[in-house]
Amino acid sequence: MKFHSHEKNITRGIGLGIFLLLTTYLLAFVIFGRPTGLILVLFIVELLFITVLLIIFFRQGQQGRALVVPLAAGILLSLVTVMIAIFMGTTLIHAPLPPPDSPAWSSGSPVIAMAVSTDEISTSSPEARELLIGGLTVASRNNQFAAAIPYYDQALAIDPDFTEAWMAKGVALHNLGSYAEAVGCLDRALAIDPANAAAWSLRGIILDSWNRPDEAAACYRKAGDLDSRYQPI
Questions:
Q1: Cα–Cα distance, 84 to 101 (Å, whole number)
Q2: For the segment 83-120, what is each residue's pLDDT rounded down to a tens digit?
Q3: What is the spatial distance between Cα 107 and Cα 115, in angstroms, rounded to a whole number?
Q4: What are the transmembrane regions (predicted)?
Q5: Using CB atoms within 10 A of its CB, is residue 19 exposed (0-12), middle (13-18) or buried (19+)?
Q6: CA distances for 142 relative to 109, 136, 148, 212, angstroms
Q7: In whole angstroms, what is the distance from residue 13 CA to residue 2 CA?
């Protein structure tokens, strides 16, 4: 019984290792586009963990068929975990910017938020992409908008045509009360992507906060012309 229990522990450990390995690898691609930094180290450690357990397993003369169930369970659980993470990220973190008549904009709060869908990020640079996501994450923690700006600046240093980074920086500057600089960031975003309805809508929101309602209304109209979700009230 003891030997049988030891064998089960090893096979379960291999299944757990496969689960962790696949989950780490897949989430790294979903979030950052590729494994980077600490994720690579974690990936290597997990690979070594599985290798050691496999060596022990086969040195004990065990049959490979004993690994079928734990391997299948590890793969299945990994896929389910990644799907749940993608769903939660899409619904809670990476939702598209709401139109101007949404409660998010009409709540009266001077603070606005920005989120982007990971599959719509325009940059081809994984580093810039990672920095944008890092900045948005920092900004979401207790409204640390000033701390988020260096992330956006670094992303823009890598890719000056990174539309979402300009938009995110504009949102952060707006929330810090720097309206002129915020509008300047949205102007840069629109120079890169003039058909970006979300950017036009954000520009209007910033101009509203800056007490320039006529210019804001023109931005809302432009956003509405580009995307019916952004029709002005």
A1: 30
A2: 766 555 443 333 334 444 444 444 444 567 776 766 67
A3: 18
A4: 12-32, 38-58, 67-93
A5: buried
A6: 15, 12, 11, 28
A7: 16
